[in-house]
Write a structure and sequence with these properties.
Blueprint (H helix, E strand, L loop, with lengths): L3 E3 L1 H30 L8 H25 L1 E3 L2 H7 L6 E7 L4 E5 L11 H6 L7 E6 L2 E12 L2
Parallel strand pairs: 1-2
Antiparallel strand pairs: 3-4, 3-6, 5-6
């Protein structure tokens, strides 16, 4: 089973991010290292060490994105929409027990992760269901008012 479920748009966004990092961003860092190296003594060359550090961070980010893409599954959005329950790519409106309403998008790419306390509480639940969110700062209840697909 895949480590992460993504919508097609989410998968494409990660792939686009990876292409940017592997192409223009990597090239820019290699050039920055070459320029800094040309300044001479590397033992006291701040620009060189900063560029090498940035290169290490970039390569780590590339490794993480490659792994996420390789270990992900693109969901069938038509089937998810027809299921009537909250899945990755759903936008869920909740009314907390204190009366506050909140809208969350279930997504590990810029939204509420399915692995977060809120995500775990709402995945697979339908409109009208009452959910209990067990968060680090305390437990609270909410009712799912609506579920729709993100645009």
């Amino acid at each position: 089973m895949a480590d992460e479920q993504l919508t097609r748009a989410q998968y494409d966004q990660l792939a686009e991010d990876l292409a940017e990092l592997e192409g223009p961003r990597r090239k820019a860092i290699v050039e920055a290292i070459a320029v800094a190296r040309a300044h001479g003594d590397l033992s006291e060359n701040f620009e060189y060490h900063a560029a090498k550090n940035e290169q290490g961070l970039l390569e780590r980010r590339i490794t993480i994105l490659r792994s996420r893409l390789q270990n992900s599954e693109v969901i069938d959005e038509a089937a998810a929409a027809a299921s009537g329950v909250a899945t990755v790519g759903s936008v869920i409106e909740l009314r907390r027990e204190d009366g506050e309403t909140m809208t969350v998008e279930l997504s590990s790419v810029g939204g509420v992760s399915p692995d977060s306390p809120v995500g775990r509480a709402i995945v697979g639940r339908a409109e009208g269901d009452e959910v209990t969110v067990e968060a680090p700062r305390g437990t609270w209840k909410a009712t799912i008012l609506s579920i729709r697909r993100s645009a």
